[in-house]
């Protein structure tokens, strides 16, 4: 078994190589090249699974109330079976009345178990929770229950289409109660690709459905608040309200809800100061990192401060829930 640092270095080197390559030849071409490197993708999958299940698992046992995965389960239970959904509906109604509009919630029905699409799942960590039925997809699955799929390319249609070799060809439109992007967006090298992933999530979610985003952030509560605001506006332009944002020690966790009526959120957006194009707005601090200290292209690297945020784990305390509608 490799040690934690070796595994972490390899993961970071893959992310950084992809970002640097994307600067050289453009994000689309770099992505295509990356996806053809099956050996690297396979090594990434095995490494990520080992990091999470062997090394991070130990910490989860000590801090069981603070793991990223348990945060997701907790948030889903709060939203679908606790007060979250009702809270959201009353807020959206209040917002509708501000614009003299009405909002119809009759077509929103969720079952007793949450259907959740885990994008970039790696090893399907949510498979053991009784309230959640997962569809787990990944570029390179690390578990037999994960479907092979490039979320950026997958088609959207009437139903889930899986080919013989567990290749997911199509996902169902408005087919999911919840979608999870756990450490997914920063893997994608450009803001446009991240925006396009969020756009796809919007199409796949039911109205009133939940998009949960976990992204590495080890800085203090407000350090990345400008970026967080950009994300909020970009997601709003797609028709999703930011419901909560919580800063854990190494993570920022967001929940967004697909609006029941897109017109209401469009009205809200008209009154916001928007100084960036939405498809460039899902930026991350690493986009501006020159990586001057990144000399070795494959397995070894001198550590980058920003990318260290990804490591070593996904825990810490929850320190607050923001009210979405109060500026
Ligand atoms: C940093 S790992 C996170 C794994 C897991 N979600 C977690 O939180 O521990 C990112 C994962 O996203 C997958 N991924 C990246 N881009 C993807 C895409 N376009 N479609 C599907 N999976 C993708 C990678 O293969 C990798 O397994």
TrEMBL record:
Cited SUPFAM superfamilies: S-adenosyl-L-methionine-dependent methyltransferases (SSF53335)
Biological process annotations from GO: methylation; negative regulation of TORC1 signaling
Binding site for S-adenosyl-L-methionine: 120, 138
Keywords assigned by UniProt, alphabetized: Methyltransferase, S-adenosyl-L-methionine, Transferase
EC numbers: 2.1.1.-
Span of the signal peptide: none
GO molecular function: methyltransferase activity
PANTHER family, sorted: S-ADENOSYLMETHIONINE SENSOR UPSTREAM OF MTORC1, S-ADENOSYLMETHIONINE SENSOR UPSTREAM OF MTORC1-RELATED
Described function: S-adenosyl-L-methionine-binding protein that acts as an inhibitor of mTORC1 signaling. Acts as a sensor of S-adenosyl-L-methionine to signal methionine sufficiency to mTORC1. Probably also acts as a S-adenosyl-L-methionine-dependent methyltransferase.
HAMAP family the UniProt entry points to: BMT2 (MF_03044)
Annotated family: Belongs to the BMT2 family.
Name by which UniProt lists this protein: S-adenosylmethionine sensor upstream of mTORC1
